[in-house]
Amino acid sequence: MSSCCVNCLSQWKSWIRPLFILTYALAALIFVPIYLFQSIEEGFQERNKEVLIGGIFAWVAVPISFWEIILHVIHYTRPKLQKHIIRILWMVPIYAVNAWLGLVNPKNALYVDSLRECYEAYVIYNFMRYLLNYLNMEMDLEASLEVKPQVKHIFPLCCLPDWKMGREFVQTCKHGILQYTVIRPTTSIIAVLCHLAGIYGGGEFRLGAAYPYILVVNNLSQFVAMYCLVMFYKANIHELRPMKPFPKFLCIKAVVFMTFFQGVVIDFLVYQGVIVPNSDTRQEEQDLSTRLQDFLLCIEMCLAAIAHHYAFSYEPYVIPGGEQSCCYAFLAMWDVSDVQSDIQEHLGIVGGSISRRIRGRSSYTVPRGIDQESPNLLCGSIPEGLYQNECDDFVINYSNITNQKSSNR
Questions:
Q1: Nearest to residue 349, comparing CAs of 333, 365, 328, 331?
Q2: Which of 90, 91, 226, 323 is the most buried (most CB within 10 A)?
């Protein structure tokens, strides 16, 4: 009996898909009728329709994303890339469930929305690491950029000084994206605290509310992160072409950035009275804005799940005999030591940069490969363990390059 169970478990890849489909189908057959009967008893109001329709889209999006995640875990052959892809794929289930819960209880939506906002920053971070790891696996990224023509700034920032190609360019883009990873969770925490203090004023564009100030900070931070992503893509467009970057960029920008501005537009239209609630109370206006945003997100996450299925497909990583342990893949997915290391590095670099500028020194006076302020700049200090025994990026020995050049002379 025990040997039969062990044999069955060892063959889990063959029965996990039908079990997953069957479990999800049974859950739908049980919970959907229960909710329908409950809604009919309540008179099937407009809010019930929103929850039902939004729930259908959300709960279609979730299994599509879950299945893509499972396939990446099964075919976990490129850990340095797939770990970040899996984290990005988790965005759709988190957004979809979050939006549906906001429809169910719009009055407390701010608290669950904070989780979604924090994950926005996490997605941007993982997309950045995914691109850096891909390029560093193929080449010496900084040395490659040094021999390229200068990448000019894009309108409307054409007047800014050029970012010197090489290490300065990579680090400026990297830390321009990392700042969003720090600022977005911080503003989310501040928003919750302001809401508890009664001064948040969600959706209110007035000086006495905290909402417009937090909105401006988030907007600026997102703009900087998106601009750095575009500049990085512009500098490495030819090297990134084999991994088909455009659909991936489009998915990230559409889900993370466009949903943010969509929410801002909805808040503004409700505040100006273009979209009118059933009653004139301020609470009803806030609830209407939240419900409309969450309803649209439920629909959009269904589309995003399909887009992610093609943009971040598992198929390029199907290498017979090259799969890692699924336990290894699962644990690596939840290991966030790289995030902690990079955020600590970012805070150290920003603090050191401000200090050097005050003293009138350049921010990039340290030779490549040696960073006295942040020795983990290219390689996070991740302790060896069961599922994380090497860092995501690569340390490059530039002394060999220098010695070779000297000998050639």
A1: 365
A2: 91
Cα(192)–Cα(353) distance, integer angstroms: 31
**Burial degree of 377 (CB within 10 A; 0-12, 13-18, 19+):** buried
Domains of the chain and any CATH numbers: 51-408 (1.20.1070)
Query: For 288-303, what is the mean pLDDT?
Result: 87
DSSP string, 243-305: G-HHHHHHHHIIIIIIHHHHHHHHHHHHHTTSS--SS--HHHHHHHHHHHHHHHHHHHHHHHH
Q: In the chain, what is the greatest distance between 2 CA atoms, to the nearest angstrom?
A: 87
Q: What letters, b where the CB count within 10 A reaches 16 and e where it falls short, cover 139-163? A: eebbebbeeeeebeeeeeeeeeeeb
DSSP state of 158: T
pLDDT at 190: 93
Q: List, for residues 14-42, the tens digit of each pLDDT value.
A: 666 677 667 767 766 676 667 666 666 66
| Site of tokens 């407390």 | 108
Pair 93, 302: CB distance under 8 Å: no
Q: In this predicted model, what pLDDT tens digit does every residue of 254-293 receive, in sequence order? A: 887 777 778 888 888 887 777 776 655 666 666 778 888 8
From the list 127, 54, 120, 62, the residue with the least C-alpha distance to 92 is 62
Give residue 317's identity as a one-letter amino acid code.
Answer: Y
The predicted model scores a pTM of 0.76
Of 208, 198, 166, 218, nearest to 364 by C-alpha is 166
Encode pLDDT of 39-86 as tens digits.
666 665 667 778 888 888 988 899 899 889 988 888 888 888 998 999
